[in-house]
Amino acid sequence: MKPSFLVISDLLDVTQRAAAWAARLAAPAGAQLVLLHVETMPVIDPTSGMMVTPVMYLSPTQEINDALTELAQQLPVETTVEVWGGVLSAVLPEMIARYQPELLVLGLNEEHDVLDRLLLNQALPSLRDTRLPLLLVPAATSNPTLPHRVALAVDGEPFHLSKQAEALKPILSAWAAEYSVIHVARASSAPEKEMRQALASVQMSGLLPAVPNECAHEVRHASPATGVLRAVAEMQADLLVLIARPRSFLSALFHHSVTAEVARRSSVPMLVLPVLEEHSPIAKTQPNPSVDLKAY
Protein backbone atom coordinates (compact mmCIF):
# COMPACT_ATOMS: atom_id res chain seq x y z
CA MET A 1 0.00 0.00 0.00
CA LYS A 2 1.22 3.49 -0.85
CA PRO A 3 2.02 5.72 2.09
CA SER A 4 -0.76 8.24 2.61
CA PHE A 5 -1.46 11.54 4.33
CA LEU A 6 -4.99 12.15 5.58
CA VAL A 7 -5.99 15.83 5.34
CA ILE A 8 -8.91 16.84 7.57
CA SER A 9 -10.96 19.39 5.63
CA ASP A 10 -12.19 22.64 7.14
CA LEU A 11 -12.93 25.91 5.36
CA LEU A 12 -12.00 25.62 1.68
CA ASP A 13 -9.14 28.14 1.78
CA VAL A 14 -7.73 26.48 4.91
CA THR A 15 -8.02 23.06 3.27
CA GLN A 16 -6.34 24.34 0.09
CA ARG A 17 -3.33 25.56 2.07
CA ALA A 18 -3.07 22.39 4.16
CA ALA A 19 -3.48 20.13 1.12
CA ALA A 20 -0.88 22.07 -0.88
CA TRP A 21 1.68 21.65 1.92
CA ALA A 22 0.76 17.98 2.39
CA ALA A 23 1.16 17.31 -1.33
CA ARG A 24 4.54 19.01 -1.42
CA LEU A 25 5.78 16.90 1.52
CA ALA A 26 4.22 13.69 0.18
CA ALA A 27 5.64 13.84 -3.35
CA PRO A 28 9.28 12.84 -2.65
CA ALA A 29 8.13 9.72 -0.81
CA GLY A 30 5.53 8.78 -3.44
CA ALA A 31 2.72 9.21 -0.91
CA GLN A 32 -0.92 9.85 -1.74
CA LEU A 33 -3.40 12.23 -0.12
CA VAL A 34 -6.90 11.68 1.21
CA LEU A 35 -9.06 14.79 1.63
CA LEU A 36 -11.64 14.06 4.33
CA HIS A 37 -14.58 16.38 4.92
CA VAL A 38 -17.24 15.55 7.49
CA GLU A 39 -20.44 17.56 7.38
CA THR A 40 -21.37 18.35 10.96
CA MET A 41 -24.23 20.00 12.76
CA PRO A 42 -24.10 23.81 13.15
CA VAL A 43 -22.01 24.94 16.10
CA ILE A 44 -23.29 27.64 18.46
CA ASP A 45 -20.80 29.81 20.33
CA PRO A 46 -22.01 29.67 23.96
CA THR A 47 -20.67 33.17 24.70
CA SER A 48 -22.45 34.99 21.88
CA GLY A 49 -25.26 32.61 21.02
CA MET A 50 -24.35 33.00 17.34
CA MET A 51 -23.80 30.23 14.82
CA VAL A 52 -20.09 29.87 14.05
CA THR A 53 -20.16 26.93 11.65
CA PRO A 54 -18.59 27.94 8.30
CA VAL A 55 -20.84 28.29 5.27
CA MET A 56 -18.93 25.43 3.68
CA TYR A 57 -20.30 23.07 6.33
CA LEU A 58 -23.83 24.20 5.50
CA SER A 59 -23.40 23.84 1.72
CA PRO A 60 -25.00 20.92 -0.12
CA THR A 61 -22.89 17.77 -0.09
CA GLN A 62 -22.49 17.84 -3.88
CA GLU A 63 -21.03 21.35 -3.78
CA ILE A 64 -18.49 20.32 -1.16
CA ASN A 65 -17.60 17.20 -3.10
CA ASP A 66 -17.20 19.19 -6.33
CA ALA A 67 -14.98 21.79 -4.66
CA LEU A 68 -12.72 19.16 -3.10
CA THR A 69 -12.62 17.13 -6.32
CA GLU A 70 -11.49 20.22 -8.21
CA LEU A 71 -8.83 20.83 -5.55
CA ALA A 72 -7.67 17.20 -5.80
CA GLN A 73 -7.21 17.52 -9.54
CA GLN A 74 -4.91 20.50 -9.03
CA LEU A 75 -2.58 18.73 -6.61
CA PRO A 76 0.64 17.12 -7.90
CA VAL A 77 0.06 13.77 -6.14
CA GLU A 78 -2.65 11.13 -6.31
CA THR A 79 -5.56 12.39 -4.18
CA THR A 80 -8.80 10.78 -3.04
CA VAL A 81 -11.82 12.75 -1.79
CA GLU A 82 -14.02 11.46 1.03
CA VAL A 83 -17.13 13.44 2.02
CA TRP A 84 -19.14 12.05 4.91
CA GLY A 85 -22.01 13.10 7.12
CA GLY A 86 -21.87 12.75 10.88
CA VAL A 87 -19.22 13.56 13.44
CA LEU A 88 -15.48 13.57 12.80
CA SER A 89 -14.76 11.55 15.95
CA ALA A 90 -16.90 8.72 14.53
CA VAL A 91 -15.77 8.92 10.89
CA LEU A 92 -12.03 9.42 11.42
CA PRO A 93 -11.32 5.96 12.93
CA GLU A 94 -12.93 4.31 9.90
CA MET A 95 -10.84 6.42 7.51
CA ILE A 96 -7.67 5.63 9.44
CA ALA A 97 -8.47 1.91 9.30
CA ARG A 98 -9.19 2.10 5.57
CA TYR A 99 -6.18 4.16 4.43
CA GLN A 100 -3.69 3.50 7.27
CA PRO A 101 -2.14 6.97 6.94
CA GLU A 102 1.35 7.79 8.11
CA LEU A 103 0.30 11.35 8.89
CA LEU A 104 -2.78 13.42 9.72
CA VAL A 105 -2.84 16.98 8.36
CA LEU A 106 -4.87 19.91 9.67
CA GLY A 107 -4.92 23.53 8.54
CA LEU A 108 -5.33 26.19 11.21
CA ASN A 109 -7.53 29.25 10.85
CA GLU A 110 -5.99 32.71 11.12
CA GLU A 111 -7.81 33.14 14.42
CA HIS A 112 -7.55 30.02 16.57
CA ASP A 113 -11.24 29.98 17.31
CA VAL A 114 -13.92 27.49 18.28
CA LEU A 115 -13.64 25.77 14.88
CA ASP A 116 -10.01 24.78 15.46
CA ARG A 117 -10.88 23.56 18.94
CA LEU A 118 -13.87 21.65 17.60
CA LEU A 119 -11.79 19.81 15.01
CA LEU A 120 -8.95 19.04 17.40
CA ASN A 121 -11.28 17.85 20.14
CA GLN A 122 -13.07 15.55 17.71
CA ALA A 123 -9.77 14.25 16.33
CA LEU A 124 -8.13 13.68 19.74
CA PRO A 125 -9.70 10.26 20.48
CA SER A 126 -8.22 8.88 17.25
CA LEU A 127 -4.90 10.59 17.90
CA ARG A 128 -4.87 9.12 21.40
CA ASP A 129 -5.66 5.63 20.11
CA THR A 130 -3.34 5.64 17.09
CA ARG A 131 -0.53 8.03 18.16
CA LEU A 132 -0.35 9.20 14.55
CA PRO A 133 1.90 12.18 13.83
CA LEU A 134 0.04 15.41 13.07
CA LEU A 135 1.04 18.16 10.65
CA LEU A 136 -0.41 21.57 11.60
CA VAL A 137 -0.39 24.20 8.84
CA PRO A 138 -0.87 27.76 10.17
CA ALA A 139 -2.61 30.49 8.23
CA ALA A 140 0.59 32.57 8.14
CA THR A 141 2.65 29.97 6.24
CA SER A 142 4.30 30.95 2.97
CA ASN A 143 3.76 29.12 -0.30
CA PRO A 144 4.47 25.40 0.10
CA THR A 145 8.00 24.28 -0.64
CA LEU A 146 10.02 21.19 0.07
CA PRO A 147 11.75 21.91 3.39
CA HIS A 148 15.43 22.76 3.22
CA ARG A 149 15.96 23.53 6.91
CA VAL A 150 14.02 21.54 9.49
CA ALA A 151 14.20 22.46 13.18
CA LEU A 152 13.70 19.65 15.69
CA ALA A 153 12.75 20.97 19.14
CA VAL A 154 13.60 18.66 22.03
CA ASP A 155 13.64 19.07 25.80
CA GLY A 156 16.79 17.01 26.41
CA GLU A 157 14.95 14.10 28.00
CA PRO A 158 15.22 10.67 26.31
CA PHE A 159 12.31 9.78 24.05
CA HIS A 160 11.40 6.61 22.25
CA LEU A 161 9.69 6.29 18.89
CA SER A 162 6.44 4.44 18.46
CA LYS A 163 5.93 2.29 15.37
CA GLN A 164 3.88 5.16 13.90
CA ALA A 165 6.82 7.54 14.26
CA GLU A 166 9.16 4.89 12.89
CA ALA A 167 6.94 4.65 9.81
CA LEU A 168 7.48 8.36 9.18
CA LYS A 169 11.29 8.13 9.09
CA PRO A 170 11.55 7.22 5.35
CA ILE A 171 9.38 10.23 4.54
CA LEU A 172 11.62 12.54 6.58
CA SER A 173 14.65 11.12 4.78
CA ALA A 174 13.01 11.63 1.38
CA TRP A 175 12.94 15.39 1.95
CA ALA A 176 16.77 15.49 1.91
CA ALA A 177 16.59 18.46 4.29
CA GLU A 178 19.15 19.81 6.71
CA TYR A 179 18.05 18.98 10.25
CA SER A 180 19.07 21.00 13.29
CA VAL A 181 18.29 20.27 16.93
CA ILE A 182 17.05 23.22 18.98
CA HIS A 183 16.92 23.39 22.74
CA VAL A 184 15.74 26.17 25.04
CA ALA A 185 17.93 26.52 28.12
CA ARG A 186 16.94 28.09 31.40
CA ALA A 187 18.96 31.09 32.56
CA SER A 188 20.32 29.16 35.55
CA SER A 189 21.17 26.00 33.62
CA ALA A 190 24.42 24.60 32.24
CA PRO A 191 23.82 25.16 28.51
CA GLU A 192 26.63 23.03 27.10
CA LYS A 193 25.63 20.03 29.18
CA GLU A 194 21.94 20.42 28.28
CA MET A 195 22.76 20.75 24.59
CA ARG A 196 24.79 17.54 24.71
CA GLN A 197 21.85 15.82 26.38
CA ALA A 198 19.49 17.13 23.69
CA LEU A 199 21.71 15.85 20.87
CA ALA A 200 22.15 12.51 22.63
CA SER A 201 18.37 12.11 23.06
CA VAL A 202 17.83 12.55 19.31
CA GLN A 203 20.60 10.13 18.37
CA MET A 204 19.41 7.56 20.93
CA SER A 205 15.87 7.71 19.53
CA GLY A 206 16.97 6.84 16.01
CA LEU A 207 14.73 9.53 14.56
CA LEU A 208 17.64 11.07 12.66
CA PRO A 209 21.14 9.89 11.80
CA ALA A 210 24.04 11.35 13.79
CA VAL A 211 23.56 15.10 14.20
CA PRO A 212 26.84 17.08 14.15
CA ASN A 213 27.41 19.69 16.85
CA GLU A 214 27.28 22.49 14.30
CA CYS A 215 23.64 21.56 13.64
CA ALA A 216 22.70 22.30 17.25
CA HIS A 217 21.00 25.57 18.12
CA GLU A 218 20.47 26.64 21.71
CA VAL A 219 18.47 29.62 22.96
CA ARG A 220 18.27 30.99 26.48
CA HIS A 221 14.78 32.14 27.37
CA ALA A 222 12.41 31.88 30.31
CA SER A 223 9.57 30.86 27.99
CA PRO A 224 10.22 27.55 26.16
CA ALA A 225 7.67 28.40 23.45
CA THR A 226 9.15 31.83 22.77
CA GLY A 227 12.62 30.29 22.76
CA VAL A 228 11.60 27.66 20.21
CA LEU A 229 10.03 30.27 17.94
CA ARG A 230 13.09 32.51 18.24
CA ALA A 231 15.37 29.62 17.27
CA VAL A 232 13.19 28.81 14.25
CA ALA A 233 13.43 32.44 13.11
CA GLU A 234 17.20 32.63 13.66
CA MET A 235 17.73 29.41 11.71
CA GLN A 236 15.28 30.48 8.99
CA ALA A 237 13.77 27.02 9.28
CA ASP A 238 10.82 26.26 7.02
CA LEU A 239 9.40 23.40 9.10
CA LEU A 240 9.37 22.66 12.83
CA VAL A 241 9.23 19.19 14.39
CA LEU A 242 7.92 19.10 17.95
CA ILE A 243 8.56 16.06 20.12
CA ALA A 244 5.36 15.93 22.17
CA ARG A 245 5.02 14.01 25.39
CA PRO A 246 1.70 12.15 25.74
CA ARG A 247 0.53 14.38 28.61
CA SER A 248 0.76 17.49 26.42
CA PHE A 249 -0.14 16.24 22.95
CA LEU A 250 -2.85 13.74 23.68
CA SER A 251 -4.76 15.74 26.26
CA ALA A 252 -4.00 19.44 25.93
CA LEU A 253 -2.79 20.25 22.43
CA PHE A 254 -4.73 23.50 22.30
CA HIS A 255 -4.72 24.29 26.00
CA HIS A 256 -1.76 24.57 28.36
CA SER A 257 1.39 23.08 26.84
CA VAL A 258 4.44 24.43 25.04
CA THR A 259 3.22 22.50 21.99
CA ALA A 260 -0.07 24.41 22.15
CA GLU A 261 1.56 27.83 22.48
CA VAL A 262 4.00 27.20 19.63
CA ALA A 263 1.13 25.98 17.43
CA ARG A 264 -0.80 29.18 18.06
CA ARG A 265 2.15 31.46 17.25
CA SER A 266 4.16 29.65 14.59
CA SER A 267 4.38 30.89 11.00
CA VAL A 268 5.87 27.62 9.67
CA PRO A 269 4.23 24.19 9.47
CA MET A 270 4.65 22.04 12.56
CA LEU A 271 5.04 18.28 12.59
CA VAL A 272 3.87 17.15 16.04
CA LEU A 273 5.42 13.77 16.75
CA PRO A 274 3.97 11.87 19.73
CA VAL A 275 6.44 9.63 21.54
CA LEU A 276 6.02 6.63 23.80
CA GLU A 277 5.27 6.98 27.48
CA GLU A 278 8.50 7.12 29.46
CA HIS A 279 7.40 4.14 31.56
CA SER A 280 6.37 2.09 28.51
CA PRO A 281 7.77 -1.47 28.57
CA ILE A 282 8.85 -0.86 24.97
CA ALA A 283 11.05 2.05 26.06
CA LYS A 284 14.78 1.42 25.92
CA THR A 285 15.84 3.53 28.90
CA GLN A 286 14.30 5.09 31.97
CA PRO A 287 13.75 8.87 32.14
CA ASN A 288 15.94 11.19 34.15
CA PRO A 289 13.72 12.34 37.05
CA SER A 290 15.71 15.57 37.39
CA VAL A 291 14.31 16.91 34.11
CA ASP A 292 10.83 18.39 34.02
CA LEU A 293 8.79 16.53 31.40
CA LYS A 294 5.84 18.92 31.54
CA ALA A 295 7.52 21.46 29.24
CA TYR A 296 6.39 19.75 26.08
List keywords for this structure.
single chain, 296 residues, alpha/beta, Rossmann fold, 2 domains, ten-stranded mixed beta sheet, 10 helices, 10 strands, disordered C terminus
Concise overview:
This is Universal stress protein. This protein is an alpha/beta fold and 296 residues long.
Radius of gyration: 19 Å
Could you name the CATH class of the largest domain? Alpha Beta
Strand content: 15-25%
Low-confidence stretches: 54-58, 250-255, 280-296
Name the helicity range: 25-40%
- How many separate domains? 2
State the CATH architecture of the largest domain.
3-Layer(aba) Sandwich
What's the CATH H-level homologous superfamily of the largest domain? HUPs
CATH topology of the largest domain: Rossmann fold
Average of pLDDT: 78
* Run of helices and strands: EHEHHEHEHEEHEHEHEHHE
Secondary structure tally, helices:
10
Helix-strand category: alpha/beta
